[in-house]
Structures are given as C-alpha cells and as structure tokens.
Amino acid sequence: MGRVVLFTLGGTIAMAAATDPVNPQLSGKDLVAQIPGAPEVLIRDIAAKPAGWLSFDEIALLAKEIRQSNADGYVVSMGTDTLEEVAFLLDLWHDGDKPVVVTGAMRHPQLAGPDGPANLLAALQVAGSPAAAGRGVLAVLNDEIHAARWVRKGHTSSPAAFSSPGAGPVGVMAEGVPLFHSGPSRRQHVNLPVREAKVGLIVATLSSDGGELTAYQMDGLVVAGFGVGHVPKSWIDPLTELSQRMPVVLASRTGAGPVLNATYAFPGSESDLRERGLIGAGQLDPFKARVMLWALLAAGATSETIAATFTG
C-alpha cells in the first residue's frame, strides 16, 4: 500500500465509547488503533465536530492541505450527515491524480458492530491503491466505492445508507483490494475560493405561495423543483425577477434523474423556466448543485461560466 495521509474531521466514526451521550472525541491515532493489523498512516487531526458543523471555509483549508501534502493517497474521516457534499466539493477542487477517499460511520462504538474501523480500513486500502489513481474523490463505506459526484446518504441509520442513485457504485472491496467496475468517470474542476459567496436552497412543496423567495438576499439560489423541473405557479414571477440579478439553478427534489430541457411548456415548467433565465442542474441533485454553484461563485466565475459548467 502506498503512503497515505489521514485527515480527521470528527463525526460518528470519532465517537468515544465511554461517553454517554456519544461525542466526537477520538483522534486519528485512536481511530487507526481500532483496526487490527492497521497499515502505517500519517495522521493530521483537523477537527472533532459533527458533520453539520463544518463550513465551506474549513473544507477549503482541507483542500489546500491535501494539495500541500506529499503522499500517494489521502483519506478524510468525518460525519456522514454532510459527507456527500464535502466529498463533491473536494472533488471539484482536486486537480491531481492521487486518490482522495472520504469515509465515516453509521454505527458508533456503543452499538453492537460499529462500522467505523472497517470503513476506515477500506478507505485506507483504496487511497493506497494505484487502481484508484485518476478517479478524483471517492466515498468508501460498507465495502462499496462511490464517485463523489453521485454518492448520496439515503437512510438515517443503516450501515448501508450510502448509494449512488442512477449510477451505482464504481467499485467494491474484496479481500482488502478495491475492484473497480470501469475506468475513471467524467469530472469537473473549479478553482479554489477567492471571495465570499452565499447560496440558498429552496424546495418546491405543495401549495407554496412563493413568499419565502422574496426574503433571499444571496449571491445565488438553487431551486429544488418538482419532478423534471417544475415549480408552483406562485413562484414564476419571483424566480423570473431573481434570475435577472443572480444565478438561479433549477434541480429536481427527487434526487435522481436529470432536469429536462424542453418536454413541458406550461408556465412554471422546465422549458418556461429556462426561457426566464434559470440554469438547469443536469443530473446533480439539489445539494450537489448548491455546492457547485457556491464553488463557482466563490471562485469568481462569470454568469456565462456558471451556465456552461452546469450544462457541460
């Protein structure tokens, strides 16, 4: 196995068994010590937080540390609540061939069969494997390997909570070896932040009156529309006005499948909203679309670049 650096951020995987209720207290050294016959690994403890406490700024600093580290691969251990967003953001910023693997745990040490040690070992094995090179950021949990672009948490507590809707895992673990189903998939690159940016996310719901849209004082907005990209009638005028002064990205609240281009034509449909200036998110779910829009705005991208990145 190649030389691997472990960056720790906290989360369930770092919960101490002796505390009640559990809190993220374990260091990277503690985590590795739980693995029977653990491989040698360099450790960098960054934070000990629940995943929901992490910020874009902290992940940007982590991305810079990864760039500056001299290793064959990198593992990030963290809470699972925002793992899909952190993995995708790191993937947008990662411009090298060395693998970065994000992992966590669904079952803390006070429960029977905690999955943290097994997930961490698998992540270290993937990060240290030449077969993972050039694949960008991967998420490894439950002996499955997922691309950062597609991975999503779909259950509150199951050890099999993570999947990649519409794409499936890119590989699996077998006898400590990563087995990939195919070659590296398409990735996009965004420059590191150079400015502050705020991006909102609003979800279309039955009988929404659109009043909440007038409260948005942001640099950009992601709309999680119905189905293939539809919104309530009351949202049409506010979204039209917002799209004239900021990038507004249209995703689907379903979490799988693409936003369409020109199938429906009624007011508030995907084709109508595109004509009003909204940008389609393609196959990105609303959470990933918000991450990408924030990253682009923080990098100083123009409106034309933002639209081209989402449609590219």
Structure write-up:
- This protein has 312 residues and is α/β, with parallel strands linked by helices.
- It folds into two domains: 177 residues, 3-Layer(aba) Sandwich (Rossmann fold), CATH 3.40.50; 113 residues, Rossmann fold.
- The chain is 25% helix and 20% strand.
- The protein is built from eight helices and 14 strands.
- The chain has an eight-stranded mixed beta sheet, sandwiched between helices. It has a four-stranded parallel beta sheet with strand order 11-12-13-14, with helices on both faces. A two-stranded antiparallel ribbon has the order 7-8.
- The longest helix has 13 residues.
- The radius of gyration is 20 Å and the shape is elongated.
Q: How many domains make up the coordinates?
A: 2
Secondary-structure element series: EHEHEHEHEEEEEEEEHEHEHH
Largest sheet: 8 strands, mixed
Terminal Cα span: 36 Å
The outline comes out as: elongated
CATH superfamily of the largest domain: L-asparaginase, N-terminal domain
Give the percentage of residues in beta strands. Answer: 15-25%
Brief synopsis:
With 312 residues, the chain is α/β, with parallel strands linked by helices.
Outline the fold blueprint.
Blueprint: E1 4-10, H1 28-33, E2 42-49, H2 56-68, E3 73-77, H3 83-93, E4 100-103, H4 116-127, E5 137-141, E6 144-147, E7 152-153, E8 162-163, E9 171-174, E10 177-180, E11 199-203, E12 220-225, H5 236-243, E13 248-252, H6 270-275, E14 279-280, H7 286-298, H8 303-311
Parallel strand pairs: 1-2, 1-3, 3-4, 4-5, 11-12, 12-13, 13-14
Antiparallel strand pairs: 5-6, 6-9, 7-8, 9-10
Helix pairs in contact: 2-3, 3-7
